[in-house]
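User: Predict structure, ligand uridine-diphosphate-N-acetylglucosamine.
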Amino acid sequence: MTLGIVILAAGQGTRMKSRLPKVLHHLGDRPLLQHVIDTARALQPARLVIVHGHGGEQVRAAITGDDLIWAEQAEQLGTGHALAQALPHLAGLDQVLVLYGDVPLIRTETLQGLLDAAGDSFGLLTVTLEDPTGYGRICRDGAGQVECIVEQKDATPQQLAIREVNTGIMVLPGGRLADWLGRLGKDNAQGEYYLTDVLAMAVAEGLAVAVAQPAEPVEAEGVNDRLQLASLERAWQRRQAEALMRAGLTLRDPARFDLRGSLRHGLDCEIDIDVVIEGEVTLGEGVRIGPHCVLRDCHIDDGVEVLAHCVIEQAKIGTGSRVGPFARLRPGAELTGGNHVGNFVEIKNAEIGEGSKVNHLSYVGDADIGRGVNIGAGTITCNYDGANKHRTRIGDQAFIGSNTALVAPVSVGRGATIGAGSVISKDAPEERLTLTRARQTTIEGWKRPEKKR
Ligand code: UD1
Ligand code: MG
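Assistant: Predicted complex:
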């Protein structure tokens, strides 16, 4: 059977109180509409149509894909009218699945179940809610067969008591669509063309109506304001956290974990509370991430320990290293392995050789550092002359004394020692002590001044 999917996304989203169209607000790493598109694509539809309205240009600029067909609904006259705008793109389809751009957590499995149940007839996704206020109610006849959907504003008191509601997600037989939509009226409380009215038409024609329910009601929840956005963000994070925990990752508290991208991990990794992961992050085996860290587009190898409050972006951390607390690894930082990077250390665009240590209060930028090097506290690579960046090179086993300024371009030879407090602006030779320091003197007979009476 050929499947077409239409995503209705023309609503104004007034209650968001935003310049951004509602469907472009983010859940995790992606706009709401992108979640729905990704789920729709997993069903491999022959056609994927998005009905846009308000903010259409902004939506089309933010959401791209060669497979997307855009249909404009210039005026929001109701869900039936919205689907009618997609009709020119829906010829020759057996099944047309209707999704909402502001209902982001619907699962592919749920939709596949609905499509299978519907076959070439009509299918409706419903949920039963404690509080059905605001939703269209599902009316069933004495035999339990679905008869119609009645909107909140059109319902009788008896109908308002029904707790089974329309999620809005439905499958329609493609061949009947044009006729049904053409017959919709707007003689109802809201003066809108209700898509839901086609259900009664299907029933009148004797078509079977298949009803399916999602595994969890949150799949059918929509976003109308920022409170609902926050609530669905938590649900999305919970869903991701559960998948990671099932795959063997320890999360000290899944309620205090945010993944805005993708995370791959080896066995026995552990992530402490309030960690934010963005972009593509990979962890080897036995990696431990301390509390309050941000990891963005980075690779962390086996046995690495990242202590509390680190920010790591576009960096690589080699096997067995220990980073933090309070360290910042910026783009191009590469720790080869067995490294120690301590508190208040910033590393950018620099390779740190195996076993080398930068333990305290240092800036290492645009540098190549050999193996077994010890960089003392407060060492600064002066990589920027106000116009250009220059590199610092430090050979294996070198020892850089505390509070050294390395004025790049400059090299420190293998096994060299730099005395504390030096400003090194010329290359320092191998295996020797180099220092720039005024000689220490003690003045004999000197007395502190005393206060005049
Ligand atoms: C609709 C259903 C209701 C269901 C509820 C579930 C109808 C008549 N009612 O009600 O039975 O319980 O959804 O949330 O269908 N949209 C457009 N163009 C329009 C109107 C809406 O694109 O002219 C889009 C909106 O962007 C949104 C979706 O359709 O994504 C639903 O619109 P909304 O106004 O929220 O529908 P409800 O009146 O809540
Ligand atoms: Mg409405």
